[in-house]
Amino acid sequence: MVKRVSLWDAGCPVARALDVIGDWWSLLIIRDAFDGVRRFSEFQTGLGIAKGMLATRLRDLTERGILESAPASDGTAYREYVLTAKGRGLFLVMVALRQWGEDHLYRPDEPKSSLVDTETGIPVARLEMRTEDGRPMDWNNTRVKKIEDR
Fewest CB atoms within 10 A around its CB: which of 8, 22, 63, 149? Predict the structure, then answer.
């Protein structure tokens, strides 16, 4: 088995982010946390993930500041996993993945879940990137200014 290489010290923010959340189990745990899942047993049942694998992912996400362990909200002796501010900062990443999946991984007539405004029930608008002055941007009119470009 190949040992996983850490990207924590990489000069690229994408590489560093993938070091923290770059496997599907971590992203699915984060997705479920946004959907209100909090307890180990709920994550395990909903995802069908092995207990050892889940324990490892939850520990890693907690150590990296994405989740925190807190006393159960119902006063029982259980612990719950809740998103930290750093974890909640991943919301736009999750929405971007969702919208990409909707655009490219479903047939036009295939049913799928949708992200809606809790107040109105209306679907959330598409994400789009803009300049600071409001102009729309895309991949072909941006570039990464690398550290050596300074």
Answer: 149
Fold of 8-87: Arc Repressor Mutant, subunit A (1.10.10)
Q: Give one DSSP letter per residue of 26-72, joined into a string.
A: HHHHHHHHHTT--SHHHHHHHHT--HHHHHHHHHHHHHTTSEEEEE-
pLDDT tens figures, 36-78: 999 999 999 999 999 999 999 999 999 999 999 999 988 888 9
Give the residue with greater pLDDT, 149 vs 21. 21
Residues 6+ apart with CB under 8 A from 3: none
Residues in the chain: 150
* Distance between CA atoms of residues 45 and 29, nearest Å: 12
Q: How far is CA 149 from CA 10, 37, 65, 146, in A?
A: 16, 43, 31, 5
Per-residue DSSP letter, 2: P
3-state secondary structure of 80: strand
- Asked whether the beta carbons of 82 and 68 are under 8 A apart, the reply is yes
